[in-house]
Every structure is written in C-alpha cells, then in structure tokens.
Design brief:
With 233 residues, this protein is an alpha/beta fold. A six-stranded mixed sheet has the order 6-7-8-3-9-10, sandwiched between helices. A four-stranded antiparallel sheet has the order 2-1-4-5, with helices on one face. Strand 4 and strand 5 form a beta hairpin. The radius of gyration is 17 Å and the shape is globular.
Length: 233
C-alpha cells in the first residue's frame, strides 16, 4: 500500500533523513520506534507532504506522491493523527469532527461523526465543549476521530499515547486493535514496546534518519537487545 524508498529530507540546509525506507501492506500495522530526534516525525511529514523529500520516492497505492501537496495526499486516503493532537481549540468537539468528514470513495459503512461517537462515547458527552475545554486524552480521541472521519485507507499516528493517563492509553490501544480487525492499515509511532508488540505486525527502528532494524513482532521479542540499542538511554 505504501512504499517509502531511500528518501532524503531537509529542514533548510539541515538534513534529517538519510535514505529512509519502509513499506506497509494493506491491512497491516507497522511501527516506527526510536529515540527522540532520530527522524520519526520527519518521516511522517515527508509521507504526508508537509516537509517534502528532496530525493527518493514515496508511492501510495501505486501512485508517486512525494511531490503532491498535503491536501492531495490526504484526499488520496492517508489520515494523520499528529504529534500534539493539534485539534482546533475554538471549535466544539462536534465541529472538529464534522469539519473533516468526507466519504470520497463512497464506502458502504463510512466513518461519520455518529460512528466516531460509537467508538469514543465520551466524545458524544463532550460534543458541545470547545477543543480547549476537554482533557488531553479526550483531545487525542478527537484527533483520532477527525482522521477517521476522512475515511482513510491508511491511518498514521505520531506519538499515539504520549502524555496520556494509563487508562486512556489502554483505551487508545483497544481502539487501534479494533481498527486493525476491521482491516485498516496503520502506521504508529510510540514508545510502549509491550503494547506495540501485541498490536503490530512489523516494526522499524529509526536511528540518525534511517531505518536501522526491521522485523516482525516475533523477531523483536526474540531480540531484546534491539530495544536496548535503539530506545535505551
């Protein structure tokens, strides 16, 4: 579904990605893990067109996308839950969700605001609250719901549970597992290795702007030194 091949991405003259490569198949969940500052978020920004790669190739469902604008990438079927949530503080929960709602591919059972409420009942209770009047966990629910409302083929989550209370983290992982069971392709960035081993099919560990190790959950469980090498302090 998505193939990132040997991309190099810069901020001004500072190079951040040095030949980053990964791929995700339809219905698959993969992870990007690594210490802060290693290029995970920049990889996401390159995929969605916020910080275009200067070289290399990004292909989504057989179409080259590395030169497309961000809104064209979104229309192609990639939904993003950004780091820091970035919901609209001056819009209500309902307005945040409704603003992105679209069924461009005429899905038989599309994601709608009501369906997002079914996934996150708490958001229905808070639907009239403004974005800056709800908790961080509820904001993350809005961010996930907003991305789902675009009816994506691929969902990308940057720091899926960072800074959230343990009960909210558990709820987010349960939701992602249910989305996986529905066949949604997911790329997730997080540091909760135990949760990711249960959820994901394959993993990429990023260091200095490139994927240095990749493998299945079974392979990662058999190689604990990988986690220490790429996540240890």
């Amino acid at each position: 579904m998505l193939r990132v091949e040997d991309i190099a991405t810069y901020y001004g003259e500072s190079q951040v990605l040095f030949g980053m490569s990964l791929e995700i198949n339809e219905g698959e969940v993969i992870t990007l893990m690594g210490r802060n500052g290693m290029g995970k978020t920049t990889t996401v920004r390159s995929i969605i067109g916020f910080t275009p790669a200067r070289s290399g190739a990004i292909t989504f469902e057989g179409v080259r996308t590395e030169r497309l604008t961000a809104f064209k990438v979104a229309q192609a079927g990639i939904g993003v839950v950004p780091e820091g949530r970035q919901i609209f503080p001056n819009l209500s929960v309902y307005e945040n969700l409704f603003a992105t709602s679209a069924n461009r591919r005429n899905e038989a059972n599309p994601w709608t605001v009501e369906r997002v409420y079914d996934l996150f009942p708490r958001l229905k209770e808070r639907r009239h609250n403004m974005g800056n009047q709800i908790s961080g966990g509820e904001q993350q629910m809005v961010a996930i719901g907003r991305a789902l409302a675009t009816n994506p083929k691929l969902l990308i989550l940057d720091e899926a549970t960072e800074g959230l209370a343990p009960l909210i983290q558990e709820e987010i992982w349960t939701v992602l597992d249910s989305l996986k069971k529905e066949g949604l392709s997911i790329l997730v960035i997080d540091k909760d290795v135990d949760a990711l081993l249960t959820l994901a099919d394959r993993h990429y560990f990023v260091q200095n702007g490139r994927a240095e190790w990749s493998g299945t959950s079974k392979e990662l469980e058999a190689a604990p030194e990988v986690v220490e090498k790429y996540l240890g302090i």
